[in-house]
């Protein structure tokens, strides 16, 4: 870029009185360089930069203080559920303390509740700290900037930038520090991060004389963290880090607190509702037992109170919020392995809900490995091999000079340009030398709105304008053609021939790029008009092999895939047909021009029938998202360019491309695809749906186990006027089942089968939808066998065997959930066909489930050791228990699993 420093004779500020908090916009370009002791031609020296770095500090924003783990730990006790538990513990403790004789059993309630609350808080703290670290890690991604140092352009970490550094920023980049612009080309900057103003600001490079300008009016300043939307700039840095405008307010921006996801909120709501129900239930239990229990088997009111409180809290699925956190963390990690980088766990849920995916074509659906296949020159189609380098010098000049691609060991630039330079290199043309000889004086960069790129170069002492781009756009600005070295007017018939050729290429799925030129040595006129059409190249960009299957999978899962591309409509339709996006259910292609001619209502109607959108601008993308959302769709949108930001933000889930995406697109998106591949989006959707399913399983498992326990207690109370479980039993049940057995349900393997059903609609759907049958069947059998154990003991050994009967209830209540937790690991699927049933049978339980099942099994078995003190502690008797009765108790705790499995299968067969 040429530096064009303005000499301003009337300096507004005397250099001696300048300090670093001056009004920089008033200074002339020369003055600002002299104040900052820098040279726009050479930049700072490394030595000087080092000194300044020490003096002014690193160019980073104040980081938000990482919350202390201990504070997080303390805060976790403020959770409403923990509060209910703590309150219950206090009631039990108080009862124990106010008793005349304190027994170990009485304080056990308090001890067990404390263990549960502590365990939950520790897990919650670990998860919270992990997720905060994850967010912090995301923010740690190093950013670089191009800077002039020791007369050379180099790329350095933005934290090393200092006042006086000369920097260069192109469209799509962030401004790394507060900078006075000293040269620019068609520069437009989005300053919304700083000023809240959404309109892009056109920038200038001259000094401004007015006084007291607001930030938004300082047109020659580029502020730190704002985005270059169009054009490019060169500038001198005057404010870094905390001295920058954004640095002054950065504490506001950097406070990054992971918010509660909708699913987490729903779970909290559910647990709170159950919490309320539990209080009512506790009251019922207390009153029933109080009135039913006769004197002879009576317990003290205090004992009844402790049991009722314990039973009430046992209904609450305390571990649910933790399971949700674990599910989201596990999914985020798994997805990163599958090239889907989730910036906020909230996005996992939304991904699971998506029912429309709007995808780019190039790179996402196609391989982005572009190669020139055919050429259209002298109004003839030819194979690329037949190209003659001595005959088509003009086309070679245009391809080489009107391009920024670098094709060496490493290929830098857009895939389209790389393809054309690759092609030129096949004919041993030294494109780098050509660019050196024919200096570029000016340029208008490519943008997806104009679909053109223009340069001004000196070629053989003449000033040549080269324009390349989409042929249909190029034809509108061409008035001549070059055939066999002769320039003649471009007639309507000529245009028709070119359009026909374009159609023919596009029908073969080829991407076409046209080239033109004009000589402006004598007449200075607008670059993009009166051009001479030189010819075009047709580029192959094959669809990605794996994408077709992914699209099929998406369709089966009730997800519609829409292609939105800047490419030609016939090319787009051809590729869409090959991939199964444009099928019999949908008609035609809508172009950006068609969209302009339709009203929003008409477009909404057409959107129902159209799956391919071609030659669209970024504004059209945003409109499409908006109209789809108005129809209650949950929309995912992919994008890579700066201009895609509005649609990425507007979509329910914005997906940017890790390889080809600009920093801006990555910055505003919710998800980044590390491999740019459409297939990864479907993997993400699959993970999202699995999370939802696992959480539902956990809810179902916990509710069934908890209700069974209370139902058993109530039934035996009514039938036998006995309290079958004491507070220690109840609380131990919570400890083993909630804290040990339920957790691995959230860690189980992902199931591909979720993609066979329509997406869940979290917004309206109750968390209990689809799991009520599981809850009813499980509760029924669990309760039935627990009560049966009690009754068998009484029937067999008479009412004196109450202590043994209670052992039976304890065994059933504890062991049944341990066994049937196996079923909750991918057994309760939304089964529709017999094929689905086969999928279940293939299932192997996860390692964590087996380990934790074993831990739970051994711990529970230890409580059954026939030692009097242990027996007393648990308020049952295993010492002297009839071995046959013991075997029956165990069989009865296994039977619920078998019965649940068979009944569920049977019911589903009938459904
Ligand atoms: P998608 O939105 O699916 O990524 P795309 O990459 O084809 O589609 P654009 O990048 O907007 O969309 O390109 C649109 C058209 O502009 C292309 O068909 C091509 O003719 C032309 N084009 C693409 N890249 C360049 C470039 N670097 N210079 C000039 N013209 C280009």
TrEMBL record:
Residues annotated as transmembrane: 69-95, 107-126, 270-293, 305-328, 699-718, 730-747, 767-788, 808-827, 848-867, 883-904
Pfam short name (any one): Cation_ATPase_N
GO MF assignments: ATP binding; ATP hydrolysis activity; P-type sodium:potassium-exchanging transporter activity
GO biological process, one term: sodium ion export across plasma membrane
Keywords from the UniProt entry: ATP-binding, Cell membrane, Membrane, Nucleotide-binding, Translocase, Transmembrane, Transmembrane helix
DNA-binding as UniProt keyword: no
InterPro entries, sorted: ATPase_P-typ_cation-transptr_C, ATPase_P-typ_cation-transptr_N, ATPase_P-typ_cyto_dom_N, ATPase_P-typ_P_site, ATPase_P-typ_TM_dom_sf, ATPase_P-typ_transduc_dom_A_sf, ATPase_P-type_domA, Cation_transp_ATPase_P-type
Cited SUPFAM superfamilies: Calcium ATPase, transduction domain A, Calcium ATPase, transmembrane domain M, HAD-like, Metal cation-transporting ATPase, ATP-binding domain N
PANTHER family in alphabetical order: CATION TRANSPORTING ATPASE, SODIUM/POTASSIUM-TRANSPORTING ATPASE SUBUNIT ALPHA
Family recorded in the similarity comment: Belongs to the cation transport ATPase (P-type) (TC 3.A.3) family. Type IIA subfamily.
Name under which the protein is recorded: Cation-transporting ATPase
Name of encoding gene: ctp
